Amino acid sequence: MTENEDEYTSRLVKLVLIGDGTSGKTSLAYRYVNDTFSKPYSQTLGIDCLLKRTILSSNVHVTAQIWHIGGQSIGGGMLDKYLYNADGVILVYDVTNLESFENLMDWKEQVLQLIRLRSDAKFPHFVLVGNKIDLEHLRVVRGQRQEAFAKKQGMSSYFVSAKTGEGVTMCFKKVIADILGIKLTVKDHDYQYTIVKAEIVKEKKKCTENSTVQSVARPKSPEKSSFCVVQ
């Protein structure tokens, strides 16, 4: 380690995403790691593990392990092993699905119970993420309700869209920075943007043959990433 490197250089951070099935945990993980989104839904069986290498505050090199657990695993016997030594636990719900929000407390209690059973367990940084904010017209859980719940439970709170990428990269960067106790710089907020085409829903009105619509550009991170799958 050189004199210009700080104590957090080359740190490893383990983040575990939990929540009901269809809340978008897998899509959220892949959006952050690979900047991709897949439409067809396929429920995660067991757990997936992705790796994302990033640099924060100019010289803080971090490798983030992103573990996302299948929604059906809340009572699974392996859950404690997946959560063991996690630096952060991210509770994900779908803002268009009230039940996924109401079940968050059950997920958190399950984590706390597992922590209490292990004397060597690390107490993680809890994070609340409301996903699918691109579906504002279908939203049933308002921002005020999420913020109130997060404040009561002592969690940081974020709103994101795994589909469009809105808020995803910054959410993960802030979570990692909070865990490491570092302050993000202006450079951490700078991204490269590319224009993406939005889908056009055909209505009864006749559209011109070559009509296209462009949406706000999504962030595209130049950071390296890799993945592994754990069954």
From TrEMBL:
GO terms for molecular function: GTP binding; GTPase activity. Keywords: Endosome, GTP-binding, Lipid degradation, Lipid metabolism, Lipoprotein, Lysosome, Membrane, Methylation, Nucleotide-binding, Prenylation, Protein transport, Transport. It comes from Dimorphilus gyrociliatus. This is DgyrCDS11241. One of its GO terms (biological process) is lipid catabolic process. InterPro entries: P-loop_NTPase, Small_GTP-bd, Small_GTPase. PANTHER family: RAB FAMILY (PTHR47981), RAS-RELATED PROTEIN RAB-7A (PTHR47981:SF13). Belongs to the small GTPase superfamily. Rab family. One of its GO terms (cellular component) is phagocytic vesicle. The keyword Cell membrane does not apply. Its main location: membrane. It holds the Pfam family Ras. It comes from the Eukaryota. SUPFAM superfamilies: P-loop containing nucleoside triphosphate hydrolases. It is found in: Late endosome membrane; Lysosome membrane.
